[in-house]
Design brief:
The complex is a heterodimer of chains A (348) and B (503). Chain A has helices at residues 2-23, 32-57, 65-82, 105-128, 134-152, 159-165, 170-181, 193-211, 213-223, 225-230, 235-261, 273-283, 295-314, 322-346, and strands spanning 85-90, 93-99, 157-158, 263-264. Chain A has 348 residues and is mainly alpha-helical. In chain A, strands 1-2 form a two-stranded antiparallel ribbon. Chain A has a two-stranded antiparallel ribbon with strand order 3-4. Chain B has 503 residues and is an alpha/beta fold. Chain B is 33% helix and 25% strand. A 6-stranded mixed sheet of chain B has the order 6-9-10-3-11-12, with helices on both faces. A 6-stranded mixed sheet of chain B has the order 18-21-22-15-23-24, with helices on both faces. A 4-stranded antiparallel sheet of chain B has the order 2-1-4-5, with helices on one face. In chain B, strand 1 (6-15) and strand 2 (18-28) form a beta hairpin. The longest helix of chain B has 16 residues, at 178-193. Chains A and B meet through helix 9 and helix 10 of A and helix 10, helix 11 and strand 20 of B.
């Protein structure tokens, strides 16, 4: 617990420094529109970070998040454009599994998100029942879901196309867009709704993690899976649940992505988001060994990357520098954490 | 007269919050086996680590063959001839015995090319193995496949390869079978004859009596006495260690009745178990002891009963009703509880707090609509502390920081809160000091008195004889025989455990 607090202080100080730098950048850095932009991205990254972090708490890892985001975004768009079309040609044979007419936005959103639930369930079963390594299962998943997304459609899918083809979906889309990502009909950002969504989810998951029996089981599993099992925790069931949560949140984030940016490209929507999510989780206090971290830390951790990204724009640093800056910050954080760990070990 | 091999004088070592060693002195002569005895936390391990260069003393001096020494780390100590044989062995399990013997100082040829000189290593390796009584063919074996006793011999051989003058062994027999232990004594005797000295830490007082030339006792980080070989008796050692007489090590107030068995096992076979089916009856209010050599299959049997191993055949009945435990949660729900052999790996979440650990199996009662009730958990914690006298600074201190005895009390306490019907104890007092052992024994007695069926698996002969109403001896996965309390004695148990048949 003490170490959790130290880490929380760490990410807090980092954010204060970053925000100060942003403040002194002059210009429009602290304008409402810019801050909303940053907080929006924060919310979007936050949603997937929550799932990634919980999985790390139970000692798992998910590398497929980015692909799930991409697949979900593309599926969401394609469902609204043309409906389900599970037909095609293989080895010269024409096959048809299921085709439907275009699906209206809310069911489409639920289907896309539910797909994440199924993916999480399958991955979770592979890890807990077949005892495969989470790293490998989700690495395979990363390739598979990306591939599937590119099979679903070869071209961009977007809200503009949906509106053109199906004007009757327009009002529902406007409603979803306003309440989930805070964008008005004309595409202007009215408020950072994604952050609100993220905070609502974080509150629910925070109560589960810190106040319920399940959360306590998750920490126990993350620290020492064997001891948890010997104490009567149904380890497999709990881990499976967290895999489901993680992938479901990722798929939901795909829906948000399409609503926010208006279009999604099957080959690059959501790429490397899993790495940003894991980075955010670690900055927020997770140890990849499992068992550590607080919900508030995960939320704060997800704010780092959006602020750095924004800072670079205002400092006129080319965005190509962002990866190494992020990497360096994570490395410094890791070194600091290890130093603290060593000191506390010696003081025993 | 030449100076003694090692002299430690006025050693003081302070850790934050604890004075681990306070003006401790020790002398080891050439070819002498000195046993260091004391309760957990008395400072034995710290003293060993100071001598082996792991820690540096704050005050005090060390002399090796009369010359003052000061090591920067265990490597320097090893080069000077002082080797620490660890409690957790330090061998590379994936490498062969030969590779391990020369790890870090490989014999090479062709100068800077550093090609491994296998022939030279094999020759030297054979000599080293011979000194610990292992045949030369062991050189090619992978260390991970050796039983613990032989691993330890390999580690000793490695130390000998460094021309060790002083071997420090911290609880060397804690994971050995009786046979392996005997073998180790022979090796120690051989080393002694060859002029090598041994500093030996043990909790098992019978062993100290058997193999040490001299015993020094530490209590609370101070020297409290020394006994020569002739003076070493169990009572004297315990009195020095505890600082008082132990009135009764094994309290007995329960009377096992002849009730119907609460747990009945018939024809049980399980994954990873022996091919022969196993039967067992366990009655409420009795303490059933199970003896056998390490590797006889006792732990595996308890795991199978607790739902950790897949049942292949046979049946388990609880109060006459057929039960199927697919996982520990099922067993726990029925009141069949296991205190596992390895408490650090299976019994506790070391990084988490005492309260966290206590709550873990009891959360099903301590919640309201899955929300944990903090007050109920705190009450559970306070009750446990009071009932078992667990010494902990607070409820959130990581369980791993407590002493062995207190850790084990936490494991016990988490089960007591559930009201056990059948309590399976696998090596319940391993790594627990003498004072705390008595507390556990009286607790076991009390539980049996209240009608709990207690099934104790133990390698500690004294404990087995002291607390059991009935003993089942296992040999290679089969029951070798049953001994009632009236005919219980060490010889009878050993005869059965080594496959000597019914007495």
């Amino acid at each position: 617990m003490k170490r959790n607090l130290i880490r929380l202080t760490g990410v807090g100080v980092l954010l204060i420094v970053l925000f100060s730098l942003l403040g002194f950048s002059g210009g429009a850095a602290f304008d409402r529109s810019n801050i909303y932009e940053v907080l929006s991205r924060h919310g979007a990254l936050g949603v997937i970070t929550l799932g990634a972090a919980l999985l790390i708490v139970v000692g798992g890892i998910d590398l497929s998040i980015g692909s799930v985001v991409g697949l979900s975004a593309v599926t969401f768009g394609v469902l609204m454009e043309s409906g389900i079309d599970l037909s095609g040609t293989i080895f010269g044979y024409r096959y048809v599994i299921l085709t439907t007419s275009p699906i209206s936005p809310i069911p489409a959103m639920l289907i896309a998100t539910g797909m994440g639930t199924i993916i999480g369930f399958i991955q979770g079963l592979l890890v807990t029942r077949l005892r495969l390594q989470a790293f490998l299962v989700t690495l395979c998943g990363m390739f598979i879901y990306r591939g599937v997304a590119r099979q679903v459609t070869a071209k961009n899918t977007g809200l503009v196309g949906v509106r053109e083809l199906h004007p009757e979906f327009g009002s529902t889309l406007d409603f979803l867009r306003f309440w989930l990502v805070g964008k008005a009909e004309n595409g202007a950002l009215v408020f950072p709704a994604q952050l609100v969504v993220c905070l609502v989810l974080a509150t629910i998951l925070g109560v589960i993690l810190h106040r319920t029996v399940f959360g306590r089981y998750w920490y126990a599993i993350g620290y020492n899976e064997q001891a948890a099992r010997y104490a009567g925790v149904k380890v497999e069931r709990q881990k499976l649940a967290v895999f489901v949560i993680c992938s479901t949140l990722a798929a939901f984030a795909g829906v948000l992505l399409l609503l926010f940016s208006g279009s999604a490209n099957p080959s690059d929507a959501g790429t490397s988001l899993e790495l940003y999510a894991i980075t955010a989780a670690v900055l927020g206090g997770c140890s990849l060994r499992g068992g550590e971290g607080l919900m508030i830390g995960f939320v704060l951790g997800a704010l780092v990357q959006p602020v750095i990204n924004n800072l670079m724009i205002f400092r006129n640093i080319p965005s190509s520098a962002e990866p190494w800056v992020m990497g360096l910050i994570l490395l410094i954080g890791t070194i600091a954490d290890e130093m603290i760990r060593r000191r506390s070990r010696l003081s025993r | 007269m030449s100076p003694p091999l090692l002299v430690a004088n006025g050693i003081r070592k302070q850790f934050p919050g604890v004075l681990a060693l306070d003006n401790v002195s020790a002398t080891v002569s050439r070819g002498e086996v000195l046993a260091v005895v004391g309760e957990n936390g008395a400072g034995k391990s710290t003293l060993m680590k100071v001598i082996a260069g792991v820690y540096r003393a704050d005050v005090g001096e060390l002399r090796l063959e009369g010359r003052p020494i000061r090591f920067n780390g265990p490597l320097e100590a090893m080069r000077a001839g002082i080797s620490l044989i660890h409690q957790e062995l330090n061998l590379a399990e994936n490498l062969s015995v030969q590779d391990n013997l020369f790890l870090g100082r490989e014999r090479t040829k062709w100068g800077p090319v550093k090609l491994l000189d296998r022939r030279a290593s094999a020759e030297k390796g054979r000599i080293l193995l011979e000194r610990v009584g292992l045949p030369g063919r062991y050189l090619t074996y992978t260390v991970g496949e050796l039983p613990p006793g032989q691993k330890q011999l390999v580690e000793i051989a490695r130390a000998l390869g460094l021309d060790a003058k002083l071997l420090i062994m911290d609880e060397p027999t804690s994971s050995l079978t009786q046979k392996e232990t005997d073998r180790l004594y022979e090796v120690i005797a051989g080393l002694k004859a060859g002029g090598v000295s041994v500093l030996y830490i043990s909790h098992r007082l019978t062993e100290v009596k058997r193999c040490a030339d001299r015993a020094m006792v530490l209590r609370d980080g101070r020297n409290v006495g020394e006994l020569s070989k002739a003076e070493i008796t169990h009572e004297k050692l315990v009195r020095l260690m505890v600082g008082r007489d132990l009135t009764q090590l094994f309290p007995r107030s329960h009377f096992p009745g002849n009730n119907n068995p609460v747990l009945t096992i018939r024809g049980l076979r399980f994954a990873g178990g022996p091919p022969d089916p196993i039967d067992l009856d366990l009655r409420p209010g009795e303490v059933l002891g199970t003896a056998g050599l390490v590797g006889a299959g006792r732990t595996e049997l308890t795991e199978a009963v607790f739902g950790l191993r897949k049942r292949l055949a046979g049946e388990i009945r609880l109060d006459g009703h057929l039960v199927r435990f697919r996982c520990p949660a099922d067993a726990i729900r029925h009141g069949v509880l296991l205190v596992p052999e390895d408490r650090r790996l299976h019994g506790l979440v070391l990084e988490a707090g005492v309260e966290f650990n206590l709550s873990l199996p009891n959360l099903n009662r301590l919640n309201f609509a899955t929300l944990i009730r903090p007050h109920a958990v705190t009450k559970l914690y306070q009750d446990a502390i009071a009932r078992l006298g667990i010494k902990t600074p607070n409820s959130t201190v990581p369980a791993g920081l407590l002493s062995g005895g207190n850790q084990q009390k936490v494991v016990f306490a988490k089960w007591l809160a559930r009201g056990p019907k059948v309590l399976i104890l696998d090596e319940p007092t391993r790594g627990v000091d003498v004072g705390a052992k008595t507390e556990f024994y009286s607790l076991i007695d009390e539980l049996a008195g209240r009608g709990v069926a207690v099934w104790v698996v133990t390698s500690d002969m004294e404990e087995l004889l002291g607390i059991s109403d009935r003993v089942l001896v296992m040999h290679e996965g089969r029951w070798a025989g049953e001994l009632e309390r009236s005919v219980l004695c060490e010889e009878a148990v050993m005869q059965l455990a080594t496959g000597g048949g019914q007495t």
